[in-house]
Amino acid sequence: MAEFQIHTQIDAETDIIELTGYLDAHTTPQLESAFTNFIERGRFKVVVDFNNLKYISSAGLGVFMAFIETMRDNKGDIKFAAMQPNVFEIFDLLGFPMLYEIFQTVEEAIQKFKNQ
User: Fold this and answer.
1) Minimal CA–CA distance to 49: which of 14, 13, 79?
2) Fewest CB atoms less than 10 Å from the CB: which of 17, 50, 59, 85?
3) Are 23 and 15 in contact (CB under 8 A)?
4) Cβ atoms within 10 Å of 116's Cβ, excluding its own
5) Is the pLDDT of residue 2 over 80?
């Protein structure tokens, strides 16, 4: 199984999380830690770059559900970008496109924050 990696970067007011590999029950603590770190620093606008994510489990999806309310309560949001078709299928099956904005590129998601 591919190694899971998280890389974060900051673009003005927006934090970007790049996910690589497989996000499952074993790797979700890393993602939870990244979100906790953002909240502790008062950073509530997050774009998740899925370009290199090969797989996501229900545990991985649960991380986004756990943090979305906190982000939105603080005038922020979690936006998704650059999903591979197999990952999008999982999100789509569970109705996530109705709850989250999904963009083709990270740049589009960042621009949406800037236009709000």
Assistant:
1) 79
2) 85
3) no
4) 9
5) no
Given a cut of 60, whether residue 8 has pLDDT beyond it is yes
Instruction: Name the one residue in this structure whose structure tokens are 């830690």.
Output: 33
Structure tokens at 51: 């370009």
Whether the CB-CB separation of 65 and 31 falls below 8 Å is answered with: no
CA-closest candidate to residue 96, choices 88, 105, 106: 88
Pair of tokens at residue 26: 């074993």
Q: Is residue 12 very low, low, confident or very high in pLDDT (cuts 50, 70, 90)?
A: confident
- Residue pair 69/101 in contact (Cβ under 8 Å)? The answer is no
How far is Cα of residue 88 from the mean position of the Cα atoms in its chain?
A: 12
User: Which segments of 16-57 does DSSP mark as H helices, in order?
Assistant: 28-40
Collapsing DSSP states into helix, strand and coil, what is residue 76? coil
65 contact partners, CB below 8 Å, separation of at least 6: none
d(C-alpha 68, C-alpha 65), whole Å: 5
The CATH class for the domain spanning 5-111 reads alpha beta
DSSP reduced 3-state for 91: helix
